[in-house]
């Protein structure tokens, strides 16, 4: 079972901010956005702003969230802060589930 010490979700005019922490600090910051191109299918770009760049599960979490946000009609980018002790799939699924349950877009 995953445990989140604190979670914060806030919507701004130009982005959605999500902070999820088990360690009481911001942790790794990621930005995820949808990019419209010439093709009919959108592409999604995730980048690490600062923090752990060698954690593919964190990037996958951000990508899953931005895809859900986009399919729900939001065009705003996501800024995601993950301060996690445990980077397991179960923990990250819990983060995604919690954000989607409390969505503000």
Automatic annotation (TrEMBL):
GO terms for biological process: proteasome assembly. It comes from the Eukaryota. Gene3D superfamilies: 3.30.230.90. It holds the Pfam family PAC3. This is Proteasome assembly chaperone 3. It comes from Linum tenue.
């Amino acid at each position: 079972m995953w445990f989140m010490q604190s979670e914060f979700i806030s919507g701004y005019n130009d982005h959605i901010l999500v902070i999820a922490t088990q360690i009481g600090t911001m942790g790794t910051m990621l930005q995820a956005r949808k990019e419209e191109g010439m093709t009919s299918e959108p592409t999604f770009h995730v980048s690490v702003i600062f923090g752990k760049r060698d954690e593919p599960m964190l990037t996958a979490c951000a990508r899953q969230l931005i895809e859900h946000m986009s399919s729900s009609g939001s065009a705003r980018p996501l800024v995601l802060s993950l301060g996690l002790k445990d980077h397991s799939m179960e923990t990250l699924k819990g983060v995604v589930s919690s954000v989607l349950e409390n969505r503000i877009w």
